[in-house]
Amino acid sequence: MGGRCIMCGRLVEVEEFNPDSYDDYEDEDLQPKKSSILICQLCQAKLRHEADEAQKIPKPM
Ligand SMILES: [Zn+2]
Question: What domain of life does the UniProt record list for this protein's source (predicted)?
């Protein structure tokens, strides 16, 4: 059983979609709830990267 990544449409194997890994990023508000929403590892990495970039944006003077 599997699903498609909501970001890019890649097929995602549920086995490799490990909700337990979310414990590593408990401060990520953009992570969807642990429901049937699937995001492939590539897009997860991308989201994390974008989140990091967003935090790097300096405050406007
Ligand atoms: Zn994806």
Answer: Bacteria
CB neighbours of residue 55 within 10 Å: 7
Looking at the predicted structure, is the pLDDT value of residue 44 above 90?
yes
What gap in Å lies between CA 47 and CA 60, rounded to an integer? 23
| Domain residue ranges of the chain, discontinuous segments joined by + | 1-13+38-61
pTM of the predicted model as reported, rounded to 2 decimal places: 0.52
Which element (helix H / strand E) includes 52? helix 41-56
Answer whether residue 42 shows pLDDT above 60.
yes
Q: With beta carbons less than 8 A apart as the criterion, state whether 5 and 45 touch.
A: no
* Ligand 1 midpoint to CA 4 (Å): 8
Residues with CB under 5 A from ligand 1 (ion): 5, 7-8, 10, 40, 43
